[in-house]
Every structure is written in structure tokens, then in C-alpha cells.
Fold:
Amino acid sequence: MKPTSKYETIRQILSDFKQPTYRYRQIIDAIFEQKVAEYERITILPAFLREELARTLGPNVSSVIPVKELTSQQVSKVLFAIGGGERVEAVRLSYKRGWKSYCISTQCGCGFGCRFCATGTIGLKRNLTADEITDQLLHFHLNGHALDSVSFMGMGEALANPHLFEALAILTNPHLFGLGHRRITISTIGLLPGIDRLTREFPQVNLTFSLHSPFDEQRNELMPINKRFPLRDVLNALDRHIQHTGRKVYIAYILLQGFNDSTEHAKALAAHLRGRGCWEHLYHVNLIPYNSTNVTPQSYLPSDPERIETFVRTLKMYGVNVTIRTQFGADINAACGQLYRADSNMNG
Structure:
């Protein structure tokens, strides 16, 4: 039986206790408008109802419990305790213009074993529930932070978790989080069934595809998923996504020194993205500086600036849209590929 979200459970409790329909609105208003973090403190409700909510759902509105927080300039990384004695991490990014963006986790660990990623060394512990996914954001909201945009780029492969779509429904529900679809980004290593479902059900949500090598053999080595869903098939699915949605698709590409940052790589990447039809201008490459960790191979090093510049110039020469992504949080292991869920990682 699939776990129901707390919002459905609240409706069920109200129904069981034959409560008037306005009670649901009162509870949701207390959580999202008044930022009340414990059911006991929703004093507009009768005592028996507060007790029943706390008994069924636990005392705290959020199911994820912050254990530790690390902060560096513009970045805050929170380690949450979740059911089963596990841990997951989420990151808050504060931009100079006042915009706040969040990077949240969908799985505890990850089972896909991409070679450059710290999370992948853990293996998959379990999928997060829809509540555990959305409660990472609820934690920040209850603590007074504006939820401007969110990306599913934390621990795990978002499209491998069947609860993702319920989480998206909760986040975009105008009576709950009320996030605009275009303020949400899903990142995937290329799971075809998930890409097709996202195209159908949430066409306005932003999609990022982690590519990292234009050569199948090398991508197989770097990202074993490529053997199951080869690059060519994923790009065809992304074509369908663009045609259906009219939205940009972002191609994430981590630059590894002497491994995938040559001019040949840039030309091959451009060859994949050009000649795809009248929508090819909607592909946009985000180049990501590599962040090493002590659990990923020491042979992987960040590309040097000249190499990055040549790579960018080559892509532009072939008419590919490209941006070098600003990186925050590497100093506290909060940047791309560094989330690891370990207390030892949170020293600082």
C-alpha cells in the first residue's frame, strides 16, 4: 500500500471525526501562513483534534528532523534525520539579488553508481516518501525562508522514485506550497520512462539531463545507466519533450580534466545537439566545474580555466547555447555531486 501524504491523512482524520470542511483550511492556513510547526500549537482547533493529529502524524508538522546545519557564504546545508535511522541532506542557496533556491533529495543514497558522485558510493538505502521530499522545503518555509525555486538535484535520482510525482502535485498545489511549475527543476541521468511521464504530467517543470560525455563507451564507464538507456534514445525522448512543451531542456556537463574536456568532446557534444530540428535552439548546455570529495576517485580533477574557455568557445562556434554554472558550497561539500548524508561530512 502506498503511503498517503500527511495532507490526505489530515482530510481522513477530519472525515473520521465528522468535522466541518473549514477545519482543513484552518490547519493548512496554520502551517503555510502562520508557520506553526507543531500540531499541538494549532490552537484554533479543539484539543481532541490536535491530540489526534499529533498521535497519528507525530508531534511535528514536518516529518524530517534537522540534525545539523553547515553554513558558508550564500549556502546552507542541512542534514535531516528521517524514518528508519537514515539521513538525507538538502541545500539552501541565497543569491545576491535576494533570490533563494533549494536543492532537495529524493532518495537516501543512490543506486546508479555514477563514478564522479559521492552520493552514489552509498548505494540506495530507500526512496523518500512524498512527505519526506516536500518536508525538506517545509522546514525552510517554517523557518521563515522564501521558497523562490527548487531543484531536485540533491541525493538520489528523482525519476527513479515513484513518489516524485505526488511530491510535485503537493508542491504545485495552490492551496499548499503553491509553487509555479516553472520554478521547479528535475535533474535526471536519463531514465526514459520518467522523462516521458514528466512530459505528460508536468510539462512546464524544467528538465535537466546529466550527460557528462558525448561518447557512449566513455559514458558507460562514467554513468553505467547509459548501457540501459543510451544517449541517442534519451536525446530522442528530450526532442519529444521539447516538441510537446515548447520549453528549454538543460544539458548538465561536469568537466573533468583530461577526461571529457577536450575539443573533440566539445565537437561531439555539439554534433549531438545540432541538426535535431527547428527546436534545437531550446537545448542549453550548463557546464559544471567538478567538485572532488574524499569518496570519489582521486584521478578526477577539475578542468583548468583555459580548457573550460576552449570548450565554451568550441560549443559557441557550432551554435550551441552554453553557460558556465556558478558553483556555491564546495567548501562545505554542498555542491553538485558532493551530498553524502554522513555526520562526518558535516564537521565545520
Summary: Confidence is low (pLDDT under 50) at residues 329-348.
